[in-house]
Amino acid sequence: MTLTTLTRRGLIAAGAAALALTGLPALAQEPIVIKFSHVVAPNTPKGKGAEKFKELAEQYTNGRVKVEIYPNSQLYKDKEELEALQLGSVQMLAPSLAKFGPLGVSAFEVFDLPYIFKDTAALRKVTEGEVGEKMLALLEPKGIKGLAYWDNGFKIMTANRPMIMPDDFLGLKMRIQSSKVLEAQFAALGAVPQVMAFSEVYQAMQTGVVDGSENTPSNVYTQKMHEVQKHATHSNHGYIGYAVIVNKAFWDGLPEDIRAELDKAMDEATTYANGVSEADNAAALQAIRDAGTTEIHEQTEAERAAWVEALQPVYQQMESRIGKDTIDMVRAAAQ
Ligand code: LMR
């Protein structure tokens, strides 16, 4: 044995002793990082829900978990973020339920059917019950675990001309999320639907690539779409909500005690996010009105009835895509 080997051994032994006294626990305490990517502004129901989850998750785990939020498509756009989650480049997302079709889970498009929920209470019966749970389970074979449903709210239509009766949509180029139900909805109105990432909508409206779109007041206002849309119809014809999802391998690999704290943080963040969504959207609609750039039409009962009738064929058309059993199950639960 050479002197150098002996010296090296001595050094290793001394180092190990020092670590045992001071360093080892510190090494084990490197925080677990959850990258939470989303496409909307921080001051939206989803943005606020993400902030609340971060605050509670870090608090309940005493800093053993660190949540990094990347809003406004800063990291990934609509379709890319789902791929990034599956690859493990990010750990948590909350995509709109209208965006799971390209992943091969088209059942979530049931949430896009026009007029399927008469109000938030009807929706809750689905998302907070067995049906909602069953639907989240459809994500597991894709390596994704669904943790919760978060609300945004009911949609308005926006464009550069008034949209009073179904005929008014004839030939309008309307941006949609990547949902076949939304495609069928606009086709039924005689419009030309165009799938586009959320981050590209403002510019597409500004440059005339699209004439209009549908979204919640909160999304319209925080993306400044109202500045480039002269007309809106307060129609509440459909719903936008989110599935909060995580990379399943990451989630299953977490220490059990940590996962329990994160579940608790998610439950509370869900209650919080779903508690602010309605007021946020009402405030955003008022803010759009106050900005004075967009004329908001309040739909009458007769106009609504005409829209309902024009959009009725969408149910039949989408039956084979979503599954008749899923549509029936959701409708029954929403009663
Ligand atoms: C959209 O793409 O229109 C929205 O659903 C974005 C979002 O996440 O609310």
Overall description:
By secondary structure, this protein is of the alpha/beta class. The chain has helices spanning 3-28, 45-60, 78-87, 120-127, 130-137, 180-188, 201-207, 217-222, 248-252, 256-291, 301-311, 313-322, 324-333; strands spanning 32-37, 65-70, 92-93, 144-154, 156-159, 173-176, 192-195, 212-215, 231-234, 239-247, 295-298. The chain has 13 helices and eleven strands. It is 48% helix and 17% strand. It is globular, with a radius of gyration of 24 Å. The chain has a single domain, classed as 3-Layer(aba) Sandwich (D-Maltodextrin-Binding Protein, domain 2), CATH 3.40.190.170. The chain binds (2S)-2-hydroxybutanedioic acid.
| Number of extended strands | 11
Number of helices: 13
Overall geometric form: globular
- CATH topology, anyone? D-Maltodextrin-Binding Protein, domain 2
| CATH architecture name | 3-Layer(aba) Sandwich
* Major sheet details: 6 strands, mixed
Structural class based on helices, strands and sheet pairing: alpha/beta
| CATH class category | Alpha Beta
- Can you identify the CATH superfamily? Bacterial extracellular solute-binding protein, family 7
Global Rg: 24 Å
What pattern of helices and strands is seen along the backbone? Answer: HEHEHEHHEEEHEHEHEEHHEHHH
Terminal Cα separation, in Å? 82 Å
Helical fraction: 40-55%
Strand order of the largest sheet: 7-6-8-5-9-11
Low-confidence stretches: 1-26
Q: What proportion of the residues form beta strands (DSSP E)?
A: 15-25%
Overall pLDDT confidence: 93
Can you list the ligands bound to this structure? (2S)-2-hydroxybutanedioic acid
Question: How many structural units, i.e. domains?
Answer: 1
Assembly classification: single chain
GO biological process, one term: C4-dicarboxylate transport
Family: Belongs to the bacterial solute-binding protein 7 family.
Keywords: Periplasm, Signal, Transport
InterPro entries: DctP_fam, TAT_signal, TRAP_DctP, TRAP_DctP_sf
